[in-house]
Amino acid sequence: MRSIVSRLIYSKSSISRLYTSGLLRNGRLLSTDSNHVDEPFKVEEAETLNVPPPPSDKLLVLGGSGFVGSHVCKEALEQGLSVSSLSRSGRSSIRESWADKVAWHQGNLLVPDSLKDVMNGVTAVISCVGGFGSYSHMYKINGTANINAIRAASEQGVKRFVYISAADFGLVNYLLQGYYEGKKAAEAELLSKFTYGGVVLRPGFIHGTRRVGSMKIPLGVIGSPLEMVLQRAKPLNQIPLVGPLLTPPVNVTTVAKVAVRAATDPVFPPGIVDVYGILRYGHKG
Ligand SMILES: NC(=O)c1ccc[n+]([C@@H]2O[C@H](COP(=O)([O-])OP(=O)(O)OC[C@H]3O[C@@H](n4cnc5c(N)ncnc54)[C@H](OP(=O)(O)O)[C@@H]3O)[C@@H](O)[C@H]2O)c1
């Protein structure tokens, strides 16, 4: 129902914009000013309604015990979703009331059998599983583990799958080859298995408060000012080799918000969302 309503309103707003600006002919918009030809009509990204998802939506967060994953779980609960998580350690060490509302499962994405039961009845998956280490470890955690999850979700008929990948960091990619190769392999699998419901988010550095044991590390002290400055410096990002290092950081709550929206909003466009897209969607409210 929500899907139909959002689609109707979506198409209505697009059509009304066509009428207010002129007539659509041969893929171009002709303005009412006869000398003026507008650029081809471009559908704005995710012109979605911020309607809360139906409570029947069941979200599985892979890596819900981690830094990004815990924020995703919290955001999804705030949106009224039923939330479960899977990670090797199981329950998060966070002692906050929202954590009691998550169904915590223990399992390893590198052992596909772990995935059989947790996917039952799940409507959407957000994977926050990734990590660093040796080449083969990085390839396995970022690539193979997520590919296993994408295949299991597709076989179980899950509708939408969001994968937290990473921005291209130019020179750094050579130093973290397994990380980026793994990410790219998982992205390719997602876009082929979930043509209509697969979304890849590619943030750069994610800041916020990261917990390490009982300690809270306020990464935002560095991340927030950098985000403010660099989000307005997009052209610098195009400079060969060093440009990607100027990719703006993004707040973890923004990433979580966009991930949950991408997982639950049926008109959120499938495909890759770069850091500037994440910032835009995050500010859309
Ligand atoms: N943090 C950043 O600045 C940043 C920037 C760009 C992209 N990203 C990406 O965002 C994602 C989340 O990052 P994060 O910083 O939140 O990482 P994190 O804190 O290390 O969380 C990773 C999560 O994945 C789980 N996990 C790891 N291996 C697993 C496996 N084999 N099976 C099941 N669960 C597994 C971990 O729990 P267990 O160890 O208990 O299994 C943990 O819950 C990653 O893909 C990362 O590459 C992060």
From TrEMBL:
Residue span(s) of domain NAD(P)-binding: 63-206
Any one cellular-component term (Gene Ontology): mitochondrion
Gene3D superfamilies, A to Z: NAD(P)-binding Rossmann-like Domain (3.40.50.720)
SUPFAM superfamilies, A to Z: NAD(P)-binding Rossmann-fold domains
Coiled coil stretches, renumbered: none
Record GO terms (molecular function): protein-containing complex binding
Protein origin, superkingdom: Eukaryota
Identification of the protein by name: Uncharacterized protein At1g32220, chloroplastic isoform X2
Gene source species: Phoenix dactylifera (Date palm)
